[in-house]
Amino acid sequence: MNYRVKELAGLAGVSVRTLHHYDAIGLLSPARRSPSGYRIYGPEDLLRLQQILFYRELEMPLEGIARELGRPDFDPEAALVAHRARLEERLGRLRRLVATIDTTLARLGGGEKELKPEELYEGFPKETAERWEREAAENWGDSDAYRESRKRVARMSKERWAEVKAEGAAADEALADAMRRGVAPGSAEALALVERKVAHLRNFYEPSPEMVKGLGDMYVQHPEFRAHYEKQAPGLAEYLRDAMTAWAAGRA
Amino acid sequence: MNYRVKELAGLAGVSVRTLHHYDAIGLLSPARRSPSGYRIYGPEDLLRLQQILFYRELEMPLEGIARELGRPDFDPEAALVAHRARLEERLGRLRRLVATIDTTLARLGGGEKELKPEELYEGFPKETAERWEREAAENWGDSDAYRESRKRVARMSKERWAEVKAEGAAADEALADAMRRGVAPGSAEALALVERKVAHLRNFYEPSPEMVKGLGDMYVQHPEFRAHYEKQAPGLAEYLRDAMTAWAAGRA
DNA sequence: TTAAACCCTGACGCTACGTCATGCTCAAGG
DNA sequence: CCTTGAGCATGACGTAGCGTCAGGGTTTAA
Description:
2 copies of one chain form a homodimer.
Chain A: H1 5-12, H2 16-24, E1 32-33, E2 39-40, H3 43-57, H4 62-70, H5 76-109, H6 117-120, H7 129-138, H8 145-155, H9 158-180, H10 188-201, H11 209-221, H12 223-232, H13 236-251
Antiparallel strand pairs in A: 1-2
The structure holds a DNA duplex.
């Protein structure tokens, strides 16, 4: 119900000093003070702190956070949805970093001394402050793939579901076939097949190019996905990733 | 081949000032200087900068980075593999943050004013410097789930593969059944079934509790996984996540 | 040969706290 | 009742990792 500094600090995983600081700059002042001057935080403060931490995690300067939270039209739920979208973006970035490690390792393993500099830093350009301005304007954070997917699947009948699964399997099989025939993952034919796969994905949600690329990365990185595709045809996971990456690049 | 400050800065996505700074503190000094005093970076510098940026991304203080890179036994490839493991960990953290948003939204949507504080901050405790010390000692970064998985699947025969798939399906079905019977995801029975599922995962790699939890989160968050389980039984994705989370908690 | 685009080296500024120092408060135990 | 240890408060100063001028050379394409 009510918390004192150290309790709240423990819960939220921040230091007491941080709470002092947030109070000092007026970012988060406790609901009230005890007679002896102790800071007493209430439930509203917990939610506000959560918002602050999300913004901070996403590297918004404290001053900016204060401005956001202070806006008369600030909507906590909408903000959470926006945070979610930004976190997903960051997940994408981190996955690209992992991929960068893999390509670097591959090159080093291949004995190459010198490697293409673009490959070396793929995924690094941190989300700068610039990003905050851009997104503040675009405000595209309201669509939410997860909820979308949930709703669409819920509305699907058993038969429709069987169809959808068959579509997906057919699309994957067509891609596996293309790979076996030596079709380059960046070729027009491969891209068309990716388009078909994307059409299948649309049964679940509306995938952005970024998401398609992320999905491709996941096929390579996640053991369960990887095993699934790898068994269908050796090298298929990488092939899919490359084709999907190329497809996404063509849409960006 | 050779780069001047602005070029390298552009490639790596850092500022010129940053390169100046790294030179000033001796973290990254250019291979040579032009007659007029310009900094000239060579290929080795590129790789070193990549290492620096990975360490920085993972929030190691520059001084610590300098120490690491300066160690006589420093092995670039091993370091990359370690970075990879840490990035995967962070991916897990971010996924937990996304999950935290979802539960918070659910609670708010349910009209609840006050929500459990542990739920509010799940995933926040940032990886502190403490972590760097711990890991420096443990040095467990050498195992790599991805490579592991790849090798094990490759060695599997077609028949063995069919068996493994059947095992997995059976484990999932048993869990779905438990859910339908109202067995709590944290109960001993559910945990035993998770154990069975984990046994199946071991066909691919040796999953840490952290990884099992991350996998559960993914079942909920990723549309393809979610759709798969959701169709098998409504609510199964969440049920699996909860059970796997509980299982992982019991191992931590 | 001149302007635009880089490059250099200081030097000061800034954010988001960490880290004392100094002193009050409060609950439990002797 | 008094002490003691954990917790709280308010300054005040320190730090990391650059951002941001200022003042002045260098390169290169037109």
